Each structure stands twice: as structure tokens, then as C-alpha cells.
Amino acid sequence: MKLSTLLLRIVLACAALMVLLPLLWTLLNAFKTNADLLVNTPKLIFTPVWDNMQYVLGRRSVARALTNSLVICSSAVAMGALLGVPAAYVIARVKNRLTREAQFFALSLRFLPPVAVAIPMMVIWLGLGFYDTRFALIVTYMTITISITVWLSIPAFERVPIAVEEAARVDRLGPYATFFRVALPIARPQILAAIAFSFILVWNEFLLAMMLSTSKARTLPVVASEMSQLGMNVPWGVLNAAVVLLSLPPLILLAVAGAGMNSVFSRKSTQD
Amino acid sequence: MATVECRNLCKSYGSHEVIRNFNLSISDHEFIVFLGPSGCGKSTILRMVAGLEEITGGDLFIGGARVNDRDPGDRGIAMVFQNYALYPHMSVRENITFALERAGTSRDEIRRRLDPVVETLGLDIYLGRKPTELSGGQQQRVAIARAMIKTPEVFLFDEPLSNLDAKLRGHLRVEIARLHRALNTTSVYVTHDQLEAMTLADRIVLMNQGRIEQMGTPEEIYSRPATVFTAGFIGTPSMNFFSLDAGEGRLRNADIDLAAPFPLRAGKVTLGIRPGAIRLVPEGTPDAIAATVERDEFHGDMRLISLNAGAESFMVSVPAATRLSEGERVLAHLDPASLHVFDAESGQRLGD
């Protein structure tokens, strides 16, 4: 092995450890008693306890927040996919001024600082009487899911060779059949990854959820953050358990759609 | 089986006109090749026939019916694309049968039609594979099978062999010729490769800048090019051209002086002659051109010699056994029967 390769590998390994160690630490701490946690020398070997998890899962607020998160995020993502994927297809295939503007608009939605969205949204939902409801959060989150799905699906559809769609037209497929039977299946891995990514974004979303809900519609990130305010003694174990719980869905999605997600963000074409 | 007729076909993109008043009538069973340099509009016309490109003006008839406004799927055509355009998410079998399934053909009927097509193209062992697991040549075979099973009225080929390597190209070219003999379907084939055009075509339509430059059998186009463009485009190695003045039964310039092959009006002409029609002759032959050898290319079955005669340079093909050294002085004789004379201004052929 060349020296430069070796050095690069070492740098890479250090970078990986920097990311992985805190995550591993959180995972371990979620299963420690406070006595094991609050020591000067961190313990790698300890008797794992289920107490923290049980405490988190046993709280009614957590159970409700978990349901809220699941319902709100999946609805927003489902609606985002339903509206965003066909929109992305049109933008990818029909190139004109209107679609170019639409493509940029979808992205520009993400330029706004979340607070700038949250405050007017709060006023709107208060005025309409939907403040602190799942419905309000679903609609608000759709601005995120639609724009992300549209933005990431456009390159996925652009990679479908135009000649294949022309072959489909010669094979008597109309525009809808071409979309459902040819374009969508070919772009599927990347489309799924785009949808998964939009799910992760809204699942982790904190600020909007905090400002648009007080109790009924609180989502898991907000409730988890509240655990740090339980008292003078910070319950590290409980906090870590909450974080682990919160991280599970994105990690599972990443495992399922990871490969596709990588190709969404790289320009490399899967086929010429 | 059907005829194809283009009447005054026009195509413009915005105000940019690429095809203007294109007229062509293709008879039943005919194999027509559109040949021309890239950007000459040959693919555009094919795509208009296919229905993939909208027709700006004029009428297109397939089998006697006007099809301008019909979808590609309703024109009775099947198309083979340059980059195969197979459905990557389907197996080879599904690729071939997809159109029939869409059309609601029964399972038994599909199976009955699949077998001979698969057998003809030797695809039996690949049926379960995905297109990405096949080589380019195999992929194009699948694409041809997909077109064949539809038993179309007209086959359209859009540079089907351009993405293949030379050996495979030759192989598949022979296969396409064999298929055409067996099926006898009217075919329109677009290529920029003159070898494909010469070997496959019943008639070549040579195109240049959106117009038909010349139309005819491969022999006609090769032996009687109607314009300087055709003469220069067809034939490998390509034709030599000389700018000469015609007058008093002679064709001459500073370095060349030849007897005119037929009576010509005085004026500037372009004289064309293929490298194979020039012979190296011994001293004392009348009308020979004194030249020096500049380069000697060995082509295996022959040698291509670059000669310089004053300001003129031209190519001669000689038997491979001929030994010439650079700078050697030779005499070249142009076969009077193989001279092509063109008007220097219009580029049109003069004489017979």
C-alpha cells in the first residue's frame, strides 16, 4: 500500500470514529443506571438495564408523541409523494419557462428560515382554529415533503433515457401508462430514497412542531427535548433512551433506502 | 406491409426551418436508407414518420392513410433505436412481449409469436435476463425482436448499429439484411455509415442540409453521383477533386492538362475521380500527370498513395505489392471513362 493511501485511510478512520463514537456512547448510556453514568472514567463494561427505556416508553406523553409523529410524518410524506412525484416528472420532461420556475420555486421554499415560516403559520392556524392539531402540522410539513420530493425526483426522472419513453410511445403507451409502467419503475430506487429522505427531515423537525403545537399535537422530538427539563438533576439515562428511540426510524429507513439515497445525491448515472 | 409517402413534409423548430418540402414515396417491401452527415435531417424525418416528432407542414401517408395526427402506436410502425431503448426494469421476454400485452393479445397468441422471433434472433437463453446483463449487440437483437414481434407495416431503424463495435456492426448488418429478405417488410433505415447504406439499401436517399441530395440505387449513387457533395460523400477512399478550366476540348490548370471526356462549354468545372481509377503509367503515355510520391499508406489489400503535382494533391490506390519510395517521381493517368465533371458553381453533374 502506498503511504498516501495509508494516510488517507487513517484520516478516513478518524473521521468515521468522530461520527460513530458519540452515537455509540448515546446507545450505551441509554442502558446504564445513573450510578454507572455519572462516573469520571466512562464505563464500557456494565450491566445493561431496561429502566430508562421503560421510563420513556411508559410515559403517556411519549406514547402520544410517538403516535403523533408517526401519523403526522407519514401523512405529510404520503401527500408529498402523491403530489411531488408526478410534479417532478412533468418538470423533468416538459422543459419550458413555467416548469423551470416551478423547479426553482420548489427549492426556494427551503431557503426560508424555519422561524420565518413558523410565525405566519402559527397565526394562520390560530385564526383558522387548527392550532395544535395534527392537521395543521401535516399541512405545514407538506411544504417540506413536497419541495424535497420534487427537487430530488427531478434528476431521477431525467436519468430515464428519453428513447425508452419514446419506445413506450411506439408500443402504444399513453402519457399516464408511460409514467406508471416505464418512467416510475425505472426511477423507483431514487424516488423511494427521495421520499425516505423527506420522511427523515420531517421526523427530525423540531422548531415548527414546537411552535405549532402545545400539547395535543406534540411530536416526539419536542417531547424528547422536554425530558431535559424534568428537574435539577438531568436524567441522562432517560434522555439518551429518548434519543435512541427517536433515531431508530431514520436509521431503519437509511438501511432500507441507503443505496438509492446515495445515488440521489450523486450525479453519477446508473445507466447510460 | 405498406407504402410510405411523404408529401411536402416540413419541420421547423420555432422560426428555424430544418426540413423543407420533403417528398419521397416508398413502395411496398422496399428497403430505403437515409444517408447523410450528422445534422442533415435524416433522423428528424424518420422521427416524423414514427410520430415522435410533430410534423410542421405537409402530409404523411402510411398504407395510403394520412397519419399526421396519429399516435406512434397507431401508425403500424415498429422502431429500433440507436441506444436500444430497452425497458431496463423488465426481462428480455417482457421487453419483447410488452407491446402485445398492452394491445390485449392473448397469452397463447403471444407465446406462439414469441417462439419464432426468439429463434430467429438467437435469444432463447437470454429470455430471463435483464437488458443490463447483455452486451450491446445482444441488446440490439432484443430491440429488433421487440420490433419484429409486432409484425409492423413499416420498420424504422434509427442508426441501430452506431453504438456497436466494428465487428459486431458487420455481423448485425448481415443479420438485418437476412431478416429483411425473410420478412420483406417496408423498412426505413437511417445511418451515417455508407457501408451500411450501400449493402442494405434497395434505394439510398442521400441527404444534406434538410434536402434530398440524390436518390437512387447504391450503384447509381456510386457510379453517377449527381453532385459534388454526393461524389465526395460516397466511396472509401474518397474521391479526388480538381478545380479546372474547361475550354477547347481540354481541362486544364497550372499543373494538369487533360482531354475533356466530352464536349464542354468553356468555364470552371470540378473534376472528380476515384483513387481506384487512376493508374501509374510508364514514361511517354499521353495526358499523364507528372507527380511525386508524398505518402504511402498500406491498407492490406492495397496501398493508398498520396501524390503531389504542383499545387494539386490527390490519392491513388495501387496493388499492395507496388513499391514506391517517398519523393519518387511517377506518372499518373486518369481513366477517361471514370471522370466525373461537375459545374464548379452549382456543384451539379455535367454530361451523362
TrEMBL record, chain A:
Which residues are in the ABC transmembrane type-1 domain? 66-257
User: What keywords is this UniProt entry annotated with?
Assistant: Cell membrane, Membrane, Transmembrane, Transmembrane helix, Transport
Tell me where it mainly resides: membrane
Q: Which SUPFAM superfamilies match?
A: MetI-like
Which compartments does it reside in?
Cell membrane
Q: Which residues cross the membrane?
A: 7-28, 69-92, 104-128, 134-154, 191-214, 234-259
- Per the UniProt record, one Pfam family is BPD_transp_1
Tell me the Gene Ontology biological-process terms attached to this UniProt entry.
transmembrane transport
Q: Which GO terms describe its cellular component?
A: plasma membrane
Q: According to its record, how does it sit in the membrane?
A: Multi-pass membrane protein
Membership in a protein family:
Belongs to the binding-protein-dependent transport system permease family.
Q: What is this protein called?
A: ABC transporter permease
